[in-house]
Design goal:
Elements (H helix, E strand, L loop, with lengths): L8 H49 L1 H6 L2 H40 L1
Helix pairs in contact: 1-3
Organism: Quercus lobata
Protein name: Early nodulin-93-like
InterPro entries: Enod93
Length: about 110
């Protein structure tokens, strides 16, 4: 299409709506990343302390959990916490935004 063709008001509204939706999606995903990172840090600390303590104090853990196993335990919990919290945050933010959009359209 030619660049100098004027857009109808309907097309302008659709583009503005699309830009607004993209901005909200970016904000939702950013909030999810931040919340997931915080959860991963907390989960790492909460898992590392008992894992390291058990390896030092329990004979079974000392014999069976080498450094790789310890790292795998800690990183698995941190990764799971990140993805669970990020997903829940993105869904909650999207739900909140959709309800706000409905209330704005009714007003």
């Amino acid at each position: 299409m030619a660049k100098n063709v004027a857009q109808s008001p309907l097309e302008r509204n659709n583009l503005a709506s699309l830009d607004n939706k993209l901005a909200m999606a970016k904000r939702c995903s950013h909030e999810g990343v931040i919340a997931g990172a915080k959860a991963a840090v907390v989960a790492t600390i909460a898992t590392a302390i008992p894992t390291m303590a058990s390896v030092r104090m329990l004979p079974w853990a000392r014999a069976n959990l080498n450094h790789t196993a310890q790292a795998l335990i800690i990183s698995t919990v941190a990764g799971a916490a990140y993805f669970i919290v990020a997903d829940k945050t993105v869904l909650a933010t999207a739900r909140r935004n959709s309800f706000e959009q409905i209330s704005n359209n009714e007003a």
